[in-house]
Design a protein that fits this description.
The model has no long low-confidence stretch (mean pLDDT 85). The two termini are 38 Å apart. The protein has two domains: 81 residues, no CATH class; 139 residues, no CATH class. Helix 4 packs antiparallel against helix 5 and helix 9 packs across helix 10. It is mostly helical and 254 residues long.
Length: 254
């Protein structure tokens, strides 16, 4: 397989990621993509070529181009340096799936059931290939249990916050989607790597939160107990490091 075909394959994956990220949060199923501004159907040529909406003239999200560049480049890197535990084809599908989870969660603060179910099937396949079925299942179940406990603690915190603020704005410290996606990621890694991915995810989220709070304090826009963020991308990041760079991840903890 040459680099031209690899680039084309990466572009197709990016198109699929953008399509799923545009359609699933709105329709919860595969459907025709619509303009985010006027809700009119986008023509196929407009959508594929990232042209402005033919109805309202609004440009497409910069996210679409960012996904294309990042995923096309990532696919080429995987072709040049395929992970020994998964190989090129499986690792490229996993990378595309990670992009879907990250983009949807960042834009909508949602981890959809349909993406979790698809991820469970993919996670079982990855876990079976990399660590074996039994370790994969243990990793998935253990991650579900651990994150469910954190979810319950988050519910308690959300109720405390609502009392302090005098209102209930339905914000959650940790969404149930974070619990289910943790199970999917645990299936991919298997035990005992699964719990380590949660540790990395918490660390990544903690570093980002510290930087965000520092920025808000400097700009005088900080509001106590009013910072909520998507945790899915950090959980995915922890899994990505362990799954794609296991030797590097082990060095970090030694």
């Amino acid at each position: 397989m040459n680099i031209i075909f690899t680039l084309f394959y990466g572009l197709m994956l990016a198109l699929l990621v953008n399509y799923l990220a545009d359609v699933l949060p709105v329709a919860r199923r595969l459907d025709h993509p619509v303009c985010r501004h006027c809700q009119e159907d986008l023509a196929l040529v407009e959508y594929v070529l990232l042209r402005p909406c033919g109805h309202c003239g609004k440009p497409r999200l910069g996210r679409s181009l960012a996904v294309i560049v990042a995923l096309a480049g990532g696919t080429i890197l995987l072709w040049l340096y395929p992970p020994s535990n998964m190989g090129f084809w499986l690792s490229s599908v996993v990378l595309a799936y990670f992009f879907v989870i990250i983009v949807i969660d960042l834009e909508n603060h949602l981890i959809l059931h349909v993406t979790t179910l698809a991820g469970a099937a993919l996670g079982l396949l990855v876990g079976f290939v990399t660590v074996g079925l039994s370790r994969s299942l243990i990793g998935g179940i253990s991650n579900l249990g651990i994150m469910f406990i954190f979810y319950l603690l988050g519910v308690v915190f959300a109720r405390y916050r609502a009392r302090r603020l005098g209102k209930d704005d339905s914000e959650e410290a940790l969404g149930f989607g974070d619990v289910t996606i943790s199970g999917v990621l645990g299936l991919m890694l298997g035990w005992p790597w699964s719990w380590l991915a949660l540790v990395y995810g918490v660390l990544f989220a903690g570093v980002f939160t510290i930087l965000l709070v520092a920025f808000l304090l400097v700009t005088r826009r900080f509001e106590s107990m009013n910072i909520f963020m998507a945790y899915g991308p950090y959980l995915v990041a922890g899994t990505f490091v362990l799954l794609f760079f296991p030797e590097f991840a082990l060095k970090l903890i030694r």
